[in-house]
Amino acid sequence: MHRNQNSDIMICLSGLVGFLLVLTTEARVGNSSELKFCSETEQCLLFDLICKTEEYEVRHYDSVKWVSTNETSFFMEFAAMKAFRRLYEYITGANDQGKKIEMTAPVLVKMPDKNFWQMGVYTMSFLLPAEYQINPPKPY
């Protein structure tokens, strides 16, 4: 069993090295029908599968652009509500181009490293759709 795990790791590493040699710099946001688990939005963050075992997958995600906002709070739930509202305003037209932007997946929340009784800065990010990856509208 130990030898199979080492073999799996070597195969994955070989695949990763080979993949990195042919990497492009284009963002990978696209049709959500390409992913079984992404069904709530039309576009999702896409990835290249490097290798897969019964226990894990090794994936490569290209660089992509996100729109993000910070919110300071004691609790993630309060910060997330305020941050989501701010980002929602941006995608519904509160941007320098007045563009309505489709929702994509995933939505990320970066959690602060803090104790329960301390304030922390939470960062929420929306993935920008493929058509806005090169020239995203600026927020107001």
TrEMBL record:
Segments passing through the bilayer: none
Highest taxon of source: Eukaryota
Keyword Signal: yes
Record's keyword terms, sorted: Signal
Signal sequence region: 1-27
GO MF term list: heme binding
Coiled-coil spans in chain: none
Coiled coil recorded as keyword: no
Family: Belongs to the HEBP family.
Protein name: Heme-binding protein soul5
